[in-house]
Amino acid sequence: MLIGFTVTFALYLLHNNVPQSIACWTMWALLDIFLLVTCFVAGNKRPWLPLGCALGASLVACILLSKSGWEWKWNTVETISAIGVLVALISRWKLGPKPAIVALVVAMVISSVPALCDAWCQNGQAGWWYWGGISFGCLLSSYGASAWTIEDRLFPVTGFIFSFGMTLVLIL
User: Fold this and answer.
1) Range list of β-strands (E), 3-143
2) Cα separation of 13 and 5, whole Å?
3) If we measure between CA atoms, which residue out of 46, 38, 57, 113 comes closest to residue 83?
4) Is 139 exposed, middle or buried (0-12, 13-18, 19+ CB in 10 A)?
5) Which residues contact 20 (CB under 8 A, 6 or more apart)?
6) What distance in Å separates the CA atoms of residue 156 and residue 46, rounded to the nearest whole number?
7) CB within 8 Å of 66: residues ≥ 6 apart
8) pLDDT tens string 99-131
9) What span, in angstroms and rounded, lies between the C-alpha atoms of 28 and 84?
10) Residue 5 class from Cβ within 10 Å (0-12 exposed, 13-18 middle, 19+ buried)?
């Protein structure tokens, strides 16, 4: 479901000019890939949500890069986000998989700030359906997780809260 929404959104971005942060989507792609591997190492035997997010964010980042070349908008928000990503990656190797999941999810929330700023400043409601679909997918993933553990539920619950917030920001 998540991959379907993301592929649809990527195709929508390919044919429409919707302002998106290339830095944000690239950081999300990297974080999602590391989160997928870390969740699996920590014991999550069904990391479908991190897999869908990793594939989707990578696809969107590639489409954004192909549309605008290597035009990389970098300011204070992206710098803070990149520092959060770096801290999460260092913690992965120093602390082990479970604390790294927490650090990766926190870094993902921090790296979401550029997208939230873009959504807040964006005229119109383009993309609300994507974030609503992702929110629903995260809710289903939270409900279907096998246990109330960090490796099974932290990312889906956090993803639901962020995606639902993005949906509200774009609608209101």
Assistant:
1) none
2) 12
3) 113
4) middle
5) 13, 60, 64, 115, 118
6) 12
7) none
8) 888 888 888 888 887 778 777 777 666 778 888
9) 12
10) buried
**Closest C-alpha to 107, from 79, 87, 136:** 87
Q: What angle do CA 6, 76, 124 make, to 5 degrees?
A: 45
Tens-digit pLDDT profile for residues 42-64? 888 888 888 888 998 999 899 98
Is residue 68 classed as helix, strand or coil in its secondary structure? helix
Instruction: Give residue-wise pLDDT tens across range 77-97.
Output: 677 777 877 887 787 778 888
Contact 77, 169 (CB under 8 A): no
Domain boundaries of the chain, sorted by first residue: 20-171
**Which of 21-25, 129-133, 135-139 has the weakest average pLDDT?**
21-25
Residue whose structure tokens are 């999300």: 28
